[in-house]
Amino acid sequence: MASVKATFTLDPQTIARLNETAERQERSKSAVVRAAIRDYSERAERLSERERQQLLARFDELVPRIPERPAAAVDAELGALRAARRGGGRGGRS
Question: Per-domain residue ranges for the chain?
Answer without folding.
Answer: 12-44, 49-86
